[in-house]
Prior knowledge:
By secondary structure, the protein is an alpha+beta fold. The chain has helices spanning 15-24, 35-47, 49-69, 125-191, 197-232, 255-265, 267-289, 332-398, 404-438, and strands spanning 75-84, 90-95, 98-103, 108-121, 293-303, 314-324. A hairpin with a 2-residue loop joins strand 2 and strand 3 (98-103).
Amino acid sequence: xxxxxxxxxxxxxxxxxxxxxxxxxxxxxxxxxxxxxxxxxxxxxxxxxxxxxxxxxxxxxxxxxxxxxxxxxxxxxxxxxxxxxxxxxxxxxxxxxxxxxxxxxxxxxxxxxxxxxxxxxxxxxxxxxxxxxxxxxxxxxxxxxxxxxxxxxxxxxxxxxxxxxxxxxxxxxxxxxxxxxxxxxxxxxxxxxxxxxxxxxxxxxxxxxxxxxxxxxxxxxxxxxxxxxxxxxxxxxxxxxxxxxxxxxxxxxxxxxxxxxxxxxxxxxxxxxxxxxxxxxxxxxxxxxxxxxxxxxxxxxxxxxxxxxxxxxxxxxxxxxxxxxxxxxxxxxxxxxxxxxxxxxxxxxxxxxxxxxxxxxxxxxxxxxxxxxxxxxxxxxxxxxxxxxxxxxxxxxxxxxxxxxxxxxxxxxxxxxxxxxxxxxxxxxxxxxxxxxxxxxxx
Length: 443
């Protein structure tokens, strides 16, 4: 979720009380997740269709592990067959001085049996298949964790964005009210000859500018609400401005220490490592695909066709051991093994790339945090100077030395400094959210 960057410059005196309320609420993410944000994250986790899709995929992957493991179990099948054959083998033999015809196979052949097949030893082929299915489950699990984590941070970013915009709109409303009141005051003074038409025009321009900025804020607010509604499934998610707080974050982090923690917790890195393990198992699978297989087969049932009474059904049993040895498959196994090794090399490079991207993100984030904190420190001085300049301007206005336009310029300096401080505090919220996400933490 990209930060919402705004340059707000709003004139007025009453706005100062609103700004002071906003800035004293804090700056950055609280150590404990607010209850209303926690509720929104829980709603998103229970609603978001993508999560449900991946949960079903994970369940299917776990079933595939059991399917692979079932290769250790025997296969039992029942067979019943009827076959009509004509002509059949016959022979004539002299018997008791007479020629007697003997039929070696019946025309109506019946066979019903119960068969069993069991792998005795497959040189690790089944074991490799189970490991490959288990690797897929691990991939699906970490992918689900990544989606759930990203969903939580998207909800949090929208939550803090809505709170920031709501506070800014309330400030903008104060701007508009005070500007309207100032216009009325200047109109009255103009009638008495104590003001200029230029003062009214300037104030009206600033009023219309404030209204347009409020429209932009309302548009951004609706967009954030639409995003939050999409994530949580709630048609009208409610975020209380008073509940959205910003606390001062910790000092800029140590890169190497954070990188070490992130390597073991970052979801993207874990996924890349999972793919390496899966590629290694693929090589094992292809190596064992060309190995022999020893199995047992047996059957018991009833069939006809036994001399001398070929029409009578008789009980019969068959059992044996089979050895299957792959000899030639058109270099299929060799090519599959080559492809698996290339895929392993690619997966290892993906891990390196994920680590490099993680380092880059942490370096950029550290620079952003230092920059925003330095700006906040500088703004503290700027706010004090702006307030002092406003006090001087008010005294000079009472003395008749300056005009209303110059006073409004001093008010604008205070308001810009206060709102800039709020904006940088909001940026630090997003910085801390991103830092926690990179380390692999959940909200």
